[in-house]
Amino acid sequence: MALITKIKAYREKAGYKQNELAELVGARRETIVHLENGRYNPSLKLAMDIAKVFGVTVEELFEFTDEPEK
Amino acid sequence: MALITKIKAYREKAGYKQNELAELVGARRETIVHLENGRYNPSLKLAMDIAKVFGVTVEELFEFTDEPEK
DNA sequence: AAATAATGTGAAATATTTATAACTTTATGG
DNA sequence: CCATAAAGTTATAAATATTTCACATTATTT
Lengths: 70, 70
What we know:
The structure is a homodimer. By secondary structure, chain A is mainly alpha-helical.
């Protein structure tokens, strides 16, 4: 399961730094880094909080593909 | 943060037992029980897999309220 | 009413996410 | 170029989700 996300694109479009987005959703900057780079499968709450910041659905922001992680 | 979910309503409408839904999404029956009863904040992957079974969005299926859990 | 199926509970073990912190690398502005 | 900001990495610890298992309760069928 590989995670594809558009967080970085939306974040830059909105003009936020990673640390600003982190603060908006009550997470650490490193967590945002890891998510933008598809490191892991976040909690539903965090995913929804981020989607809400950008006014998009979770489905628009995240997609799982079936490839087993190498 | 309290989690409200419509999993049970959709599951019954679709005619699945808890163990059948669990198998469809590769989880344990007890996990479904706990989710239906709002015990915890699932992973995004699990939430999306369940939503896909019912053909609805994650937002339609799950909602977080701000009340701190008692 | 008895038997069985379905749902619920809770504890212990395991897996995974998230936080924390310290450091590196890359971009950006003076 | 130099200074600083922003982004990325890695390791460890802490928190939380999920599995596993064993049993309890509630519903359903005969």
